[in-house]
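Why does residue order matter? Because the sequence determines the fold. Keep that principle in mind as you read this record.
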Amino acid sequence: MGVNQTKAKLKAGETVIGCYTRHADPGLAEVLGHYGWDYLLFDGEHTPLSSRECENLARVCELRDVTPIVRIPANQPGLAGQFLDTGMQGVQFPMINSEAAARAAVQAVKYPPDGERGLAAARAANYGQQAGFHFRDHVAAANRETLVILQIETAASIAQLPGILRAPDADVIFIGPADLSLSLGCPGELNHPKVEAAFEAIVQAVTPTDKALGIMVPNAAAALHWKKRGARYIMIVMEALLGPTVREFLASTRERS
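Structure:
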């Protein structure tokens, strides 16, 4: 496993910016890789994205020197390991609502003695075929380089945040705005006072720790706003960029025809 540039930047106190995509096509990932993203997040929670598809997406990211990260559908040890074996360099876990769940996520990503991930000569280990290969080196590199991202997206998770933050080796605490607003009874109302109060509670809890704060944003203005609040793992959905550009092009072109 090579150096995880996104993790290295976070550990150096830098900000990383990534693009969320729900699409399994390697060609699209290759195009995105030309734009300079630090990482691409492939969503396996709200899409049918499979580990087989992630294997080809990881290959493309390696060609473009972009960190491949996958969001898995549930906090399950075998599932995390399966996606990591494809060559993904990070796992984003949804619905982390307790310290126990946070520790289980870390355990699922790390090999013993740091965790419980199962070992195999999969693609992430170069199939065991690289000259001079030894499992000991692969285990050490994977435990050192793999990113662990925990999503805070319910009222329950905010209440349990002090315990969640105690989970060792978790790298990012990521705010899930949509589900958080849903949990608070105001779905999609991200400017609602209850949602804003929840945001601020998370910011205040995460800022003094060694964890990076993460957030999904709808546009550049929101990204800059969250950078000022201390977010360093920033993500935007591909369609949030594509939609306004396409609509503006069509509207301006049709108006002038």
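The beta strands are 16-21, 39-43, 67-71, 90-93, 147-152, 172-175, 212-217, 231-237.
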